[in-house]
Design goal:
Elements lengths: L11 H11 L14 H7 L16 H9 L5 H5 L1 H4 L6 H14 L13 H6 L5 H5 L6 H14 L5 H13 L12 H5 L13 E4 L2 H5 L1 H16 L4 E2 L10 H6 L2 H18 L3 E4 L2 H10 L8 E4 H10 L11 E4 L13 H8 L5 E3 L28 H11 L4 E4 L2 H14 L5 E4 H8 L3
Parallel strand pairs: 1-2, 1-3, 3-4, 5-6, 5-7, 7-8
The structure holds iron/sulfur cluster (2 copies).
Length: about 450
């Protein structure tokens, strides 16, 4: 039996233990880096390495991981895409690739139907599967590698193409002019780093809160809090570009690295060492992905800063007689372990009753907006945001608080879909700012 096992589907009996021992240790929220744009520029070559087309086109460690899958189904149980009826099960992706790798090396997985494009686009990159896998398989890495292939061959629908064109032309997903990014904040008296060169903190506003009218309300709330606590801060102004988080997750690695290098240089030139960010996606990318490209600043999520301001007595939160539940954004909770700060902030409001959802903390369920999903549509039986909103309603809360502008977009969209009126969706900064006396 021992002699024939490597050639049977029992091979995982050996490889699963081996994979647990040697699986690369990297932050959960960090995607693999297939090439370095900076090194390519130094070498004078702009030819990216060929993208993955076969199941054998992965690194030796990724190939070993495919063999290690025990088909236990834990990843499928927690997958929001699977729960919503989308064409994706991470278990099936890993099993199909493993089977193909053992039997048909050299065959194109797309033309052979081992991988379907709909499977790849259905993933929200919430990392619930990665977190649940007992043998440390990183399912997201295979998905993003194949997405890179689709992007490099321009196999994109209109929405995805428009998203990438907008970023290429205007450095934001909306395709709006750069000068509109933060002129409205400057009109409110918020200083840029040029106007306040001694700022202790850089407040990173992010595309969603720079351009989207609903997102802007979160930035307004943050500015009110920062001013109330007398925080010495400034914004980058029109030098701020998209962090590239959704660009990378859509599979456009070159554009992501270009944005990262430019943003890192702008922050370095501004001379600030601490960056406050209220978007959980920007937070994860700054924290886990930018250091590889030279970032040296400290990244602070706004819930962490607000919590610290309250603890040190610089911010006095008023009362709020409401029942509130809190949704942990995947990029903040599961991927980066920021669980206590948001709850401490909410509990600081006198009269506020904090009610936890069934799936919470590290086991939180996605809002449906990650993996660039907010920028395109995926066929599904029930929206991921609706599933999560129903869990929030079960708590009896009347406010669904979040800590990421993309969660707001997804939950407000879910409410429009169902016509629900029980819940108001608010960022924690909005909850706090509404309790502050002017
Ligand atoms: S990252 Fe999330 S959506 Fe994607 S396969 Fe894993 S559990 Fe499913
Ligand atoms: S959780 Fe891991 S071992 Fe289990 S089916 Fe999914 S990929 Fe395979």
């Amino acid at each position: 039996l021992v002699a024939v096992t490597p050639y049977t589907n029992l091979v995982h009996v050996f490889t699963s233990g081996f994979n647990v021992a040697i699986a690369p240790v990297k932050p959960m929220g960090k995607l693999n880096t297939p090439f370095s744009l900076a090194k390519m520029a130094e070498a004078g070559t702009y030819e990216a390495p060929p993208s993955a087309r076969r199941s054998s086109d992965f690194s030796p460690l990724q190939l070993l991981a495919l063999d290690a899958c025990t088909n236990c189904g834990r990843c499928q149980e927690v997958c929001p895409a699977y729960a919503s009826g989308r064409d994706l099960s991470p278990r099936v992706v890993v099993q199909d690739l493993g089977r193909d790798m053992r039997g048909n090396e050299g065959v194109d997985v797309f033309t052979k139907g081992v991988i379907r494009e709909t499977e790849l686009w259905a993933c929200t990159m919430c990392n619930a599967c990665v977190s649940a896998c007992p043998v440390f398989i990183d399912q997201v890495d295979y998905i993003v590698d194949y997405r890179r292939t689709l992007v490099s061959e321009n196999r994109l629908d209109g929405k995805k193409r428009l998203f990438l064109e907008n970023i290429a032309r205007n450095n934001n997903p909306f395709g709006l002019p750069q000068r509109e990014r933060q002129s409205w904040l400057v009109d409110m008296g918020v200083p840029t780093v040029k106007q306040n060169p001694g700022a202790e903190y850089l407040y990173w506003v992010g595309c969603q809160s720079s351009y989207d009218p609903r997102g802007r309300n979160v930035a307004r709330a943050m500015v009110k809090i920062l001013k109330a606590a007398r925080v010495n801060f400034a914004i980058l102004g029109n030098d701020e570009l998209c962090t590239g988080e959704p660009v990378r997750r859509m599979g456009e690695e070159g554009r992501f690295q270009e944005l990262a290098l430019k943003n890192i240089e702008s922050i370095r030139r501004a001379g600030v060492k601490k960056v406050i960010v209220h978007c959980a996606h920007c937070f994860n990318t700054f924290l886990n992905e930018y250091p590889e490209f030279g970032a040296e600043f400290q990244v602070i999520h706004h819930t962490q800063l607000i919590s610290e301001l309250i603890r040190s007595g610089r911010l006095r939160v008023g009362g709020l007689d409401q029942r509130v539940t809190y949704h942990d954004p995947c990029n903040l909770g599961r991927m980066n372990g920021v669980l206590d700060a948001p709850r401490e902030v909410l509990k600081s409001a006198a009269g506020l009753e904090l009610l936890e959802m069934r799936r919470t903390g590290l086991n939180s369920f996605c809002c449906g907006g990650g993996g660039a999903n907010v920028w395109y549509q995926v066929p599904e039986r029930k929206k991921i945001g609706v599933i999560r909103m129903e869990e929030a309603k079960e708590t009896g809360a009347n406010i669904l608080s979040v800590a990421c502008p993309f969660c707001i977009t997804m939950f407000e969209d879910a409410m429009k879909t169902t016509g629900d009126t029980q819940l108001l969706v608010k960022d924690i900064a909005e909850v706090v700012s509404e309790t502050l006396t002017e």
